[in-house]
Specification:
about 130 residues; mainly beta; Thrombin, subunit H; 6-stranded antiparallel barrel
Length: about 130
């Protein structure tokens, strides 16, 4: 089964409650509101039954607003990092990688991910 496992540098966590994600092309008025339950310090994963219908491609830079709960929303630019097609190992969907984030938003994201990581590591995705 060599090669079927991903070589992630950062561990992802599975959240107990989904977070709202709003995406759009740079400067666009059309925004897409989605949800994620899978997050890391460097990005997140959006589950899709048909990821080929995702309205962005691999070269798209997106504006992203991620609601961390309460009154806290962070902003960053993201890029599609990976597409997992139905029938592949794991859930089908789109991985979005953070490509530009300010220091304050980055600190908020790191603090949030750390606070959501279970003490026993049970919510860390392999």
């Amino acid at each position: 089964m060599a090669g079927s496992r991903e070589n992630r540098k950062v561990q992802r966590i599975l959240l107990p409650k989904a977070l709202k994600v709003v995406l759009c092309s740079i400067g666009a008025n059309v925004k897409y509101e989605l949800m994620t339950r899978d997050i890391s310090f460097t990005g997140f994963f959006l589950e899709f039954d048909s990821p080929g219908r995702f309205p962005f491609n691999q070269s798209s830079i997106m504006e992203v607003w991620l609601d961390l709960g309460g009154e806290q929303t962070i902003f960053f630019n993201g890029k599609m990092a990976r597409v997992v097609l139905p029938g592949s190992q794991g859930q089908s969907g789109i991985a979005v990688r953070i490509v530009q984030i300010d220091k304050e938003s980055e600190r908020s994201l790191i603090d949030f991910v750390k606070s959501m990581t279970a003490a026993d590591g049970s919510n860390i995705v392999a």
